[in-house]
Amino acid sequence: MAPKLPIYLDHAATTRTDPRVVEAMMPYFTEVFGNPGSRNHSFGWAAEDGVDKAREQVAALIGADPKEVVFTSGATESNNLAIKGAAMMYAKKPAGETGRGHIITAMHEHKAVLDPCKRLQKEGFDVTYLEPGKDGLITRDMVEAAMREDTILVSIMWANNEIGTINEIPEIGALCHDRGAIFHTDATQWVGKMPTDVKTDNIDLMSFSGHKLYGPKGVGALFVRRRRPRVRLTALQEGGGQERGLRSGTLNVTGIVGLGKACEICAQEMDAERERLFKLRRKLEDKVTGALSVTQINGHPDKRLAHLTNISFGFVEGESLMMATKEIAMSSGSACTSASLEPSYVLKSLGVGDDLAHSSLRISLGRWTTEEEVEYTADKIIEAVKKLRDLSPLYDMHNEGIDITKIVWQAH
Ligand SMILES: *Cc1c(COP(=O)(O)O)cnc(C)c1O
């Protein structure tokens, strides 16, 4: 049976809010509308109870103490608070000077990590951007090789949002603890999908977001370790002193309640869901790569998220491929910048060529993805790629055994 169209396979970009989450949020728009900062009446206390419960639900999912959870507007804000807040707190020299401290991150991090790091470079910090392996991984040894006497902060994402590869996070955390550097991880694609224990995983600071784990948009959290070591941050936003002074502003009670509920559901269901999605993803990959030559799955074959795949198709033009599959929502290996279509910097950092990067698809499955949808998608991709290749003279030459990389093109 043909599935209902369009099909959504872009869960790494955002997820639908689970109806159970919406239901939990509803009373907090109306009856329970108080400001949790209102300490002297029952309206405030009721709202505060909702926030307290959510803080416990979030903490339980990641093995933290509720006091270690700071609510934010999402992972972008959490990353900014973690990276800039730690750099300012642990700076070795005052503002205006250079050599204020060394930071290690990676080339294929999310922009919400890279851009705060670039800002800090302008403000006198040194930043090393590690190049991932061809498999997309950042290992403990890569971080160790980049460590300096003055390294104050390491920020490495847990799972990559474009290729789903999983970095050596507990090992990198242990290294940082040995060397006295603060360790932050952007775990936006990881939390809620994979078991997490901030204590045994050696995390000091961890960012994540509601809308990537079936909660609402505009709410997220930052885990801030309180013991061994006690991590301190300079607040970026000042005002009413909410969230222990780290994030002033009236709390987004409805969003926070939704994030809490979303975390509770993930804690209960993620193991079964991961297994189900892993099988579907494998089916999709096997079907597509079995039917089509010159395809490659980007990133490490095993050290990757269960629900996400990134496939490059040789001899097809990326834009045409997206057009031919437009009833399926997926991401392409191109990013629209203002003027042009740029190949993904993440794929580039793995050494994927521009052409292949453009003709790549990121497909991310989710809670309501069905087997029918996956079958339909695989068939549609196969059909589209075959059609496009039929029109490609380069593909003909490739099939005739001509190595097209060796052709010297004549200018006329
Ligand atoms: C989506 C995403 C972000 C940004 O999260 P927002 O909550 O939308 O600000 C940051 N990092 C990664 C890895 C992401 O996937």
Please give the order of strands in the largest beta sheet.
Answer: 2-8-7-6-5-3-4
Ligand set:
pyridoxal-5'-phosphate
Low-confidence stretches: none
Share of residues in strands:
5-15%
Q: Can you tell me the CATH architecture of the largest domain?
A: 3-Layer(aba) Sandwich
The CATH superfamily label of the largest domain reads Type I PLP-dependent aspartate aminotransferase-like (Major domain)
Form type? globular
- How can the largest sheet be summarized? 7 strands, mixed
Count of domains: 2
Order of helices and strands: EHHEHEHEHEHEEEHEEHEEEEHHEHH
Number of alpha- plus pi-helical segments:
12
Give the termini separation.
52 Å
- Rg computed from alpha carbons, rounded to a whole number of angstroms: 23 Å
Count of distinct strands: 15
Tell me the structural class: alpha/beta
At CATH level 3, the topology of the largest domain is Aspartate Aminotransferase, domain 2
The overall average pLDDT, rounded, is 95
What is the CATH domain class of the largest domain? Alpha Beta
Overview of the molecule:
Helices cover 38% and strands 15% of the residues. With 412 residues, the chain is an alpha/beta fold. It has two domains: 7-13 and 270-406, Aspartate Aminotransferase, domain 1 (Alpha-Beta Complex); 19-266, Type I PLP-dependent aspartate aminotransferase-like (Major domain) (Aspartate Aminotransferase, domain 2), CATH 3.40.640. The strands form four sheets. It has a seven-stranded mixed beta sheet with strand order 2-8-7-6-5-3-4, with helices on both faces. It has a four-stranded antiparallel beta sheet with strand order 9-10-15-12. A two-stranded parallel sheet has the order 1-11. Strand 3, helix 4 (111-122) and strand 4 (126-130) form a beta-alpha-beta unit. The structure holds pyridoxal-5'-phosphate (PLP). Pyridoxal-5'-phosphate (PLP) binds next to helix 3.
